[in-house]
C-alpha cells in the first residue's frame, strides 16, 4: 500500500513538529508555537540561553519546484516576522532582551518523512 501525499497544512505541521524537536534537542526552551497577532504569525518563539529567538519554519517536499525553503523567506516575509516579533516583545515586556531570527528549513518526502533539517541562525 502506498502512502498518499500530504496536504500543504499537514506538511507544515510535520515540519514545525520536526523543527520544535530539533530546537529542544539543542537545549532551546520553547515559549510559543504559532503565535498570532494582527501583524502576522511566528511559527516558534524560544529561548536559546538568554537570547529570545523567533523561528520561521519552512517545509518543502519533493524536488523543490518552488525553490528551496530558505529562498521562500523573502524581504517581505522578513519584515512581517520582525514587525510581529516587536508586538510579541511589547506584550510580553521583553524589549530589553537580545533577539535573534532563525530559519529552519525542513525537507521531506511527499508522504511527510523528514529527510533533512537545516538551521540558519541569524538568518536576517
Keywords:
124 residues, alpha+beta, Trna Endonuclease, Chain: A, domain 1, five-stranded mixed beta sheet, nucleic acid binding, UPF0102 protein IJ22_12410, UPF0102_YraN-like, hydrolase, endonuclease activity
What this model shows, in words?
It is a single chain. The protein has 124 residues and is of the alpha+beta class. It has one domain: Trna Endonuclease, Chain: A, domain 1. It has helices spanning 8-25, 75-91; strands spanning 29-37, 40-48, 51-61, 98-108, 114-120. It has a five-stranded mixed beta sheet, sandwiched between helices. Strand 1 (29-37) and strand 2 form a beta hairpin. The mean pLDDT is 89.
In short:
GO terms for molecular function: endonuclease activity; nucleic acid binding. This protein has 124 residues and is of the alpha+beta class. It contains 2 helices and 5 strands, in the order αβββαββ.
SSE blueprint:
Blueprint: H1 8-25, E1 29-37, E2 40-48, E3 51-61, H2 75-91, E4 98-108, E5 114-120
Parallel strand pairs: 3-4
Antiparallel strand pairs: 1-2, 2-3, 4-5
Beta-strand content estimate: 35-45%
What structural class results from the helix and strand content? alpha+beta
Q: Largest beta sheet: what is the strand line-up?
A: 1-2-3-4-5
Largest sheet: 5 strands, mixed
Shape: globular
Work out the count of structural domains: 1
Radius of gyration: 15 Å
What is the C-level CATH assignment?
Answer: Alpha Beta
Report how far apart the termini are.
Answer: 43 Å
What is the percent of helical residues? 25-40%
Low-confidence stretches: none
Care to count the β-strands? Answer: 5
The overall average pLDDT, rounded, is: 89
